[in-house]
Amino acid sequence: MDNTLVIYIRNEADIVAARKKGREIAQQLQFSLTNQARILTVVSELSRNIYRYAGCGHIEFVLVEQDRKKGIRIISVDQGCGIPDVEKAMQKGYSTSGSLGAGLPGVKTIMDEFELTSAPGSGTRVEAVKWQIR
């Protein structure tokens, strides 16, 4: 794999494809089984959010290295209506769709780095990194 791979999310089959690619990359980077499951959870959550709230967008997988550590950066981008209240959306238990509301706060907890950028009318971008620490 090159350093970056993009999976476009337009339907549920694309969510499955993103999960499959996330699993392959996590295995390639030799993450523990626990961290592989965490990465798949993040890919599922972010790609499902794209499909559910924006209709379409993409997930980027980027292989990263820093200070002799290797990792994966997962970037979720959509051009949907945006998140009106990011602070509220990051509260555990908050949901606009009747779900458990563990999504974005869960992604932040699972990953080593997390950044969310969103505004009404301008879409949403989430970047999250998981480092493979040996």
Automatic annotation (TrEMBL):
InterPro entries linked: HATPase_C_sf (IPR036890), HATPase_dom (IPR003594)
Domain of life according to the entry: Bacteria
Pfam family for this entry, one: HATPase_c
Residue span(s) of domain Histidine kinase/HSP90-like ATPase: 34-134
Identification of the protein by name: Anti-sigma regulatory factor
Species, as recorded: Rossellomorea vietnamensis
